[in-house]
Design goal:
Number of helices: 12
Shape: globular
Distance between the termini: 35 Å
CATH superfamily of the domain at 5-190 and 224-251 and 295-313: NAD(P)-binding Rossmann-like Domain
Order of helices and strands: EHEEHEHHEHEEHEEHEEHEHHHH
CATH topology of the domain at 5-190 and 224-251 and 295-313: Rossmann fold
CATH class of the domain at 5-190 and 224-251 and 295-313: Alpha Beta
Mean pLDDT: 96
Number of strands: 12
Structural class: alpha/beta
Bound molecules: nicotinamide-adenine-dinucleotide, 2'deoxy-thymidine-5'-diphospho-alpha-D-glucose
CATH architecture of the domain at 5-190 and 224-251 and 295-313: 3-Layer(aba) Sandwich
Length: 352
């Protein structure tokens, strides 16, 4: 194994923290540089277990700052990039689309430009891996799946910004011959997800006896994958994926929102010693999300057949583990929801 110097962006966020942990622990000969702006979604407490590892360095930086990103490539000599940093929440993209343009589009192009400049004399052993989402394919009706060949049809400002970033990555491959690979994954769930997303929000609201805001009729369908299985897939795509290609990642695990919410309610009733049905009483149907995509479903046969990846967890086990994690880590949840951790970072990194 070569001594790679891998820049992972967004490693203080939900999925990124699981990817950083996997790479730091599994590849002691690689050095992992975790670049993160530490927005509201970035929390270094997600990765305290590896923060002192000899093959790990944290860099606080903003991808929108092109000069700083170029300087970091000069300083550290990154050999590869795994790019996860993004604004990731659809509801926030509806209220503030420009943040998504800046980080997801401008930030990605800044990173591509920095890699292009730094790697110009020898591209052959470098890889730019862009982590994307199934939302770029748009919305499905009752049947069919997203294939790698499905035309892009993004419907929200978030998915439009991710689609634009995917297009730039492919354009840099075609035009400047940067070696790239892209993966598009379905909805992730698991530990360390910021509680604005459905699963942790609802677990926390049930725990605190607060209403569960179900958008529309709760009939929208999502395809759920345990976050550690996404991190394992990223490892496989990084090491075994073919340059220039796209891999869809998903668990063949579709749920309507309302059915998923009922599973969470039932498991929480057990966990909290409540009568069955008590948590379901918290369900409150609210105004639908604007432009709400009806259904996502990934056909993951390509990554399964070509790279030998498959999910390690059944959904029932994954959701139990997830609920256990949030219930056992209430301090994490309380700090994240009260904003205490951000005050700490604001003080800690005041000079940046
Ligand atoms: P997240 O919001 O939990 O984390 C994003 C991270 O990026 C945070 O640590 C944040 O501080 C950092 N960041 C944001 N703006 C930045 C900037 N300008 N410069 C540097 N760092 C910045 O997101 P997530 O859910 O972990 O998603 C990670 C990636 O995976 C995203 O690219 C997302 O589009 C993609 N994805 C997510 C899912 C999902 O279900 N969550 C599914 C498929 C793909
Ligand atoms: O498909 C991959 C995408 O999954 C990722 O690219 C995004 O980064 C990630 O946020 C996620 O997007 P969704 O919009 O599907 O996830 P979210 O958790 O916001 O919502 C899941 C479903 O639940 C969706 O149909 C909207 C609904 N919902 C969500 C919230 C937060 C509710 O009904 N009520 C809520 O309060």
């Amino acid at each position: 194994m070569t001594n790679k110097k891998i820049l992972i962006t967004g490693g203080a966020g939900f999925i990124g923290s699981h990817v950083v942990r996997l790479f730091v622990n599994k590849y002691p000969d690689y050095h992992i540089y975790n670049l993160d702006k530490l927005t509201y979604a970035g929390n270094l407490k997600n990765i305290t277990d590896i923060e002192n590892a000899p093959n790990y360095t944290f860099i606080k930086a903003d991808l929108v700052d092109a000069i700083e990103i170029n300087n970091l490539f000069d300083k550290y000599g990154f050999t590869d990039v795994i790019h996860l940093a993004a604004e990731s929440h659809v509801d926030r993209s509806i209220t503030n689309p420009m943040d998504f343009v800046m980080t997801n589009v401008v930030g990605t192009v800044n990173l591509l430009n920095a890699a292009k400049t730094a790697w110009k004399d020898n591209m052959s052993d470098k890889l730019f891996y862009h982590v994307s989402t199934d939302e770029v394919y748009g919305s499905l009706h009752d049947d069919g799946f997203f294939l790698e060949s499905t035309p892009y049809d993004p419907q929200s400002p978030y998915s439009a910004s991710k689609a634009a970033s995917d297009h730039f990555v492919r354009a840099y491959h075609n035009t400047y011959k940067i070696r790239v690979v892209i993966s598009n994954c379905s909805n992730n769930y698991g530990p360390n997800q910021f509680p604005e997303k459905l699963v942790p929000l609802f677990i926390n609201n049930i725990r605190n006896n607060k209403p569960l805001p179900v958008y529309g009729k709760g009939e929208n369908v999502r395809d759920w994958l345990y976050v550690v299985d996404h991190a394992r897939a990223i490892d496989d795509v990084f090491h075994k994926g073919n340059v220039g290609e796209t891999y869809n990642i998903g668990g063949f695990n579709e749920w309507t929102n309302i059915d998923l919410i009922k599973v969470i309610c039932k498991a929480m009733d057990k966990r909290l010693g409540r009568h069955e049905g008590e948590s379901e009483k918290l369900i409150s149907y609210v105004t639908d999300r604007a432009g709400h995509d009806l259904r996502y479903a990934i056909d993951a046969n390509k990554i399964m057949n070509e790279l030998g990846w498959k999910p390690s967890l059944q959904f029932e086990e994954g959701i139990e583990k997830t609920i256990d994690w949030y219930m056992d880590n209430q301090v994490w949840m309380d700090e994240v929801t009260s904003g205490d951790y951000q005050n700490y970072y604001n003080k800690m990194y005041a000079s940046h």
